[in-house]
């Protein structure tokens, strides 16, 4: 017999964006509370998870990373399958990653339909080396109708907020 307290909400979240924008680091930060400078440290698993309680609901977030296989459509498609929320990330110091945001959003929508999404400008601690202007970012976010968060995974800035927002959005539509 299933009791109400056994029921748990689990959400598959995918983090997409060009290589090296900080996707793996964000997952590691959120799920393990750690940060490493090592580039593309293999986490060895497909996803990490974290449980949170929000509004009396227990929610389990499963955060999926594309594990450096961003360029391989067949692989990324398998990662996206069944995703219920998505982070589209780019880096403050990488203009190409900003230009690719639309493409990533579309890829996820093609595979998953319209799911809660958020735009993340990571590496905000490197604002001195920025290659995108704040107003460019804001206008793209507005045009795509996406909430924008500026994060530093390194400094642990705004990471929690990103996932709280997605969970709230998700709970509002189920
Ligand atoms: P991925 O390829 O998108 O998964 O990117 P990674 O998570 O492997 O990160 C790429 C590099 O950026 C690594 O050296 C990270 O340590 C670094 N990095 C990630 N987030 C931040 C951040 O917020 N600030 C800074 N300065 N470096 C970061």
From TrEMBL:
Protein name per its UniProtKB record: Ras-related protein Rab-23
